[in-house]
Amino acid sequence: MTNSFHPPQRTLMGPGPSDVSPRVLAAMARPTIGHLDPEFIRMMDEVKSMLQYAFKTDSPLTMPISAPGSAGMEACFVNLVEPGDKVIVCQNGVFGGRMKENVERFGGQAIMVEDDWGKPVDPAKVTAAFAANSDVKLLAFVHAETSTGVMSDAKQLCQIARDNGALTIVDTVTSLGGSELDVAGWGIDAVYSGTQKCLSCPPGISPISFSEKAVAAIEKRETKTPSWFLDQKLVMGYWGAGAKRAYHHTAPVNSLYAFHESLVMLEEEGLENAWARHQLHHNALRAGLEAMGIGFLVEQQYRLPQLNSVMIPTGVDEAEVRRRLLADYNLEIGAGLGALAGKVWRIGLMGAACNKQNVLLCLSALENTLAAMGADIRTGKAIAAAESAYS
User: Fold this and answer.
1) CATH no. for residue 331?
2) Are residues 280 and 194 in the same domain?
3) How many of the other CB atoms lie within 10 Å of CB of 261?
4) Can you tell me the distance from the alpha carbon of 248 to that of 376, in angstroms, rounded to the nearest whole number?
5) Residue 34 placed within a domain
6) 3 state SS of 33
7) CB contact at 8 A, 304 and 273
8) Domain final residue, candidates 235, 251, 268
9) 137 or 244, which is more confident?
10) In the prediction, which pLDDT does 240 show?
């Protein structure tokens, strides 16, 4: 007979999921009620309002998709891309490539703007792509590239799109709640994210928002949206105003309790305070790693505080280091993806995992492990450097 599953207690400092707040876990255990229950609908209205706060938008078409971040990505593309549409897609890591895949699957023409992994999207290249191509409908880019830890200038890129009469689709899976994000102020037209990064929530929900211009483009589609589940004209009937709800799907009730609680916590902390907290603990982690002799992939001015791609010391078996950290310290850090596999570790400082205790645990565990394996690092300096950064 199969026994109940009891997972080990880990400290999650990889690229996601991140540690979930105990308050959020407790919220998931509350009694399940119907997804059309008046009390659940009241909670849905609160989720929508708090999500507008998190995104910094008042757009009515702001809601959580009942599926992980990849579904949020697909919701943006499937509603806005029609056969033959030209879409400039910026790729400087794994997730720009997924944008390209979405454009092509829905019949669009992907015009690629490529930058080295670890570098931000180059606005000059985007401007040149618009100049070389007429009738571009959309510009798509990743704000915070999870595969590299680099931040691109979303405000500037959205301005370039507006200057050329194009809409924007922006991936904010890793930035929402961890770095400055101003959807309305920057003029983002379609944005998607995930709950499992800086929002201290389990995976499985994808926050999205569409601007008025994006809604108008959806309403003017000449072809039927090729996804029934993600068709925003249908979903809006369920996430509409007040109690006028049309059944669309059975929402993940308890997961939405969790998301609600995570947004309550974000409101309590304050957006700007959350951004500052992620930067504070990144500064301490950076000081400790550099004192150890470990450098970063991304230049400091473009570096994500919540996702740190750090260079692996020469001659080190990086997979063995990760295995030992998990076995000896219950600590998870991430491997490199794609072109960066075997070259970097990805250390996350996201949401509830972004705290001083975890920074010091990570530095001491990594130093002890690397020293035991004979790596060429400086020992005995990392913790003091981190503490100095805090003071």
Assistant:
1) 3.90.1150.10
2) no
3) 20
4) 58
5) yes
6) coil
7) no
8) 268
9) 137
10) 61
**DSSP letters for 112-128:** EEE--TTS---HHHHHH
The amino acid at 337: L
Encode pLDDT of 25-45 as tens digits: 999 999 999 988 999 989 999
pTM above 0.90, yes or no: yes
**Which of 87-91, 190-194, 246-250, 256-260 is least confident?**
246-250
CA distance 340 to 330: 24
Residue 243 has pLDDT above 50, yes or no: no
HEC letters along the chain? CCCCCCCCCCEECCCCCCCCCHHHHHHHCCCCCCCCCHHHHHHHHHHHHHHHHHHCCCCCCEEEECCCHHHHHHHHHHHHCCCCCEEEEEECCHHHHHHHHHHHHCCCEEEEEECCCCCCCCHHHHHHHHHHCCCEEEEEEECEECCCCEECCHHHHHHHHHHCCCEEEEECCCCCCCCCCCHHHHCCCEEECCCCCCCCCCCCCEEEEECHHHHHHHHCCCCCCCCCCCCHHHHCCCCCCCCCCCCCCCCCHHHHHHHHHHHHHHHHHCHHHHHHHHHHHHHHHHHHHHHHCCCECCCHHHECCCEEEEECCCCCCHHHHHHHHHHHHCEECEECCHHHCCCEEEEECCHHHCCHHHHHHHHHHHHHHHHHCCCCCCCCCHHHHHHHHHC
Whether the predicted pLDDT of 241 surpasses 70: no
Cβ pair 205, 82 in contact under 8 A:
no
Do residues 339 and 190 both lie within one domain? Answer: no
**Domain total in the chain:** 2
Q: Cα dihedral angle (195, 145, 188, 159), rounded to 10 degrees?
A: 160
Domain with 103, as residue range(s), is 22-268
Would the annotation count 221 as a binding residue?
Answer: no
